[in-house]
TrEMBL record:
Residue ranges of every copy of the NodB homology domain listed in the record: 165-359
Annotated compartments: Cell membrane; Secreted, Cell wall
Highest taxon of source: Eukaryota
Stretches for region Disordered: 27-47
Cofactor(s) in the UniProt record: Co(2+)
Listed name of the protein: chitin deacetylase
Amino acid sequence: MKFETVALLSALQISLVQAHKAARHAHFKRQDTATTAPPPLDTSTDIPPLASISLGMPTKVPPTFTATFAGGATGPISGAPPLPTLGPIALSAWPTQDRIPPVDSPQVREWMKELEGFHIPDLRPTLDSTCGGDPEAAADAANRGWWTCGGHTRSTDIVACPNKLDWGLSFDDGPSPYTPNLLEKLKEKDVQATFFVVGSRVIERPNMLIQEYMDGHEISIHTWSHNALTTLTNEQIVAELGWTRLAIQTVLGVTPITMRPPKGDIDDRVRAISLAMGLIPILWTSTPDGGKFDSFDWRVAGGEIEGPESVAAFETIMANGTNFPTGFITLQHDLFEITVNLAVGYTLDMAINHEPKFDLQPVGECMGLGDGGVYRETTKNTTFPYRNNTGLDVNGDGTPDVLVNTGTGTGAGFTITVPFWSSLTVVALATVSLFL
Ligand SMILES: [Zn+2]
């Protein structure tokens, strides 16, 4: 078979897979904003049998959650500022929940200045974040460093824990009404994770974020509205990251230095903007043949598969993780009752009881960033991510990094020059004005 034919066929295959994925994502999104009648109420207290965990299963009233920590409380990280004293949060002072924030606000205009001095690749937004939906961008995926389409990464992406059998545990999309059930289980098992939180949900449930943080979990940014970032303009990406960063900083008093793009949708433009804003991208691990360390719990919540299939995917993760040459990072969610039930009732115990033993921990910890290493206020590492203006040095070799292509493509990469925080004062001032 001629090379062109093979290439065409594999491109077609990728397109079909991506089109299928897009359909699944659309399905998932509908569940997120479902307006149909709720499923029947389950008044029992136990986790349901695995075989019954599927979309439409009986649901339970979310646990009652009451705030435990007062403003001024000492945080779990040495050197961290005390918890801010929060008055009632005025939702009207923040962008609309689950919507892309407007870009003409004073805050976004100020955050745009953080991009000055950086080379932001001139890539047009993708049409719908999928290969199948945007064949032109898909053909340029390697050059774009597009992870969603072909798994292309750069040296600045965190994609795996360095040490074999280390497990970077992560939960995305919360805080949700069911998050307390997960926190209780994690506390019972003395396991910490990274929570990639959605800014608009942080503002909605600030006390749950505080509980996550005070329990020793790491907090990272997962955008304001959970839209795919490659589809957005530069200004919209800045708004998504900036508002979420501000939400977390406002509630906790610390500022994350990491982010995870929704759906893993990142390319060199999104990457450069994130890095310019002081946010290192964290993805989840892929095997060399493209298999992802994805629990597929979101597919259960989206009605595409049922509980046993997600647990089977988890078994595959553990088998791959056992044989993987390094540690790894997984993807799970705490947005839905279904995904929390899967973790609390099934997968966390599977992971904890596995032989050989995995060392479950937050991503920053497995990366060796140390106590407080994932927040700007408390990181003690002078080169990671960057506390000064000597240049981005993720690999710690003393010189500014060039973002080189570590994926399968042949992109030229790009250079980051002289990053520097410019908006600290502005962020602090803006924080004050957001509360009544
Ligand atoms: Zn997500």
